[in-house]
Amino acid sequence: MNVSEQNAGEGRPSVVSDPDPRFAEALRERGLGEVIGRVRRFPEAIRTTAEAAAALGCEPSQICTSLFFAADGVPVLVLLDGASHVDMERVRRELGAEKLTRAGGRLVRESTGYGPGAVPPFGHLTKTRVLVDRSLLGHDTVWTSAGVPFTVFPMDPRSLVAQADGTLVDVRESMA
Fold first, then answer.
1. Contact partners, residue 126, CB within 8 Å, separation at least 6
2. Alpha-carbon distances, residue 60 vs 24, 80, 144, 154, 156 (angstroms)
3. Is 104 helix (H, G, I), strand (E, B) or coil?
């Protein structure tokens, strides 16, 4: 019995032996081939950050959410901890954009090659500007999308910022 069969139906993520080929290649190109063996797949019943964190045995803030926007029509990816909400006005100001909107599925796919909800922090079809909220740096490890729905991989946040060629910013909503 393989790991996927052992964990099926138990709500725990299982080892993925075949992550998205394009993302696996992006990992190899960056010298991160060992990360492929750490990719985990959730049961499709996992729908929220809280459920994902519980399945991984981590805090919701250790789940790195990937939010895709269009700033004056130009795609931008914002990486944020799963316990926070993005402040779109802060993102707009950070980018110096006049207009910021959530990107539609078509723009997400054309820019990254991945569908909404499965966008990894790097390995995109086009050079995508990436903003990384500093909140992620409060952890030794964060879990982020691996290019296929319901898949994640662990990485230390500083390496994540570097690999994504991200810019550290403060774009989460204030806890007022």
1. 75, 110, 111, 112
2. 25, 11, 12, 14, 15
3. coil
Cβ count within 10 A of residue 124: 22
Residue written as token pair 């995109």: 124
**How far is residue 48's CA from residue 56's CA, in Å, rounded to a whole number?**
12
Q: What is the pTM of this model?
A: 0.88
Location of structure tokens 């393989």: 2
Tell me the two tokens of residue 165: 């060629």
pLDDT value for 14:
61
Q: Residue 2: which pLDDT band, with cuts at 50, 70 and 90?
A: very low
Return d(Cα 6, Cα 14) in angstroms, integer: 8
- Token pair recorded at residue 124: 């995109």
CA 135 to chain centre: 14
Question: Given the DSSP bridges, would you call strands 129-133 and 167-169 parallel, antiparallel or unpaired?
Answer: parallel
The mean pLDDT of 140-164, rounded to a whole number, is 94
**Other CB atoms closer than 10 Å to residue 49's CB: what's the count?**
20
Neighbour-count burial of 95, counting CB atoms closer than 10 A to its CB (0-12 exposed, 13-18 middle, 19+ buried): buried
CA nearest 153: which of 46, 24, 51?
A: 24
What is the structure's pLDDT at 5?
Answer: 32
3 state SS of 79: strand
